[in-house]
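Run log, item B.
One chain of 355 residues. Sequence copied directly from the ordering sheet:
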Amino acid sequence: MSANGSPSGKQPTATYDSAFLKACRREPVPHTPVWFMRQAGRSLPEYRKVREGVGMLDSCMRPDLVTEITLQPVRRHGVDAAIYFSDIVVPLKAIGVDLDIKPGVGPVVQHPIRTRADLAQLRDLTPEDVPYVTEAIGLLTAELGATPLIGFAGAPFTLASYLVEGGPSRTYENAKAMMYGDPELWADLLDRLADITSAFLKVQIEAGASAVQLFDSWAGALAPVDYRRSVLPASAKVFRAVEDYGVPRIHFGVGTGELLGLMGEAGADVVGVDWRVPLDEAARRVGPGKALQGNLDPTVLFASQAAVEAKTREVLDSAASLEGHVFNLGHGVMPSTDPDALTRLVEYVHTRTAR
């Protein structure tokens, strides 16, 4: 089965003819499909309620909570796809890396990777390491019916930046120092992370995910020449690893306007675009044969409804000539966003783009 064809030897699945998957395959759609990064999260009061007293990593390992949280924005907003509730460091935790997600800080790694000996922390990931993922996706696909579920993982560079820095960073001085100063160690680190990421995505696809997204959240910190030489090979390895499953593969990063062509070259079927580059210009940079995803500035949702609609029209007009377009924000939903603004946005896009 290919991302652009029907499943060979099988009847189409319940999700196959969904607007979201059609757009990913660059086929005609009944309306522009919509989903939001971080649509399941702190902007929803029902999310905050079910997460009370439960740590982030613990919540990612409880199939009942994962199922409920993933379904919440589908029920509330009527989005065209659900995204599996998890965190990019879950596969690292699953293989025994000593890390935690600290409120207000983010992932913190107890023993950062700085030497070749430190690579021993990163063993292969197997389905037996993440049984809660398989169980949760089984529960979700039963509930979602014709609504596709997007699986996801962190890209090797972004995972490496956390592992080498020991936590979030604005400058990535330790990660870049390794990349520039010990390119062989850096390449081995990213290659190992590519294998772990590929295995994690395969678990999700085999459990029933209809598409996958690779988040390279911090790739925008890189110059194109460094991305091509030191990052693209590992990301391409991930996309090749899941190619034969035939599910659409989405690639997203923040501040990656200068990298859009390279990100498409890595092998994605859909390239995510943040709000800094209009979609028609993004399409020129990415080149033909790819759908695009994006790209309303998340802060627009704090403006009036008239302003939200005006900025949304700009995005849709910019996407008018695209082969395939999935409407999304240019980054994740901000925690203080009014959920009703998201619901109205979904309805507006659906209504305005109805064919």
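Observations after the first pass:
- Residues 1-11 have pLDDT under 50 and may be disordered.
- The radius of gyration is 19 Å.
Flagged for discussion on Thursday.
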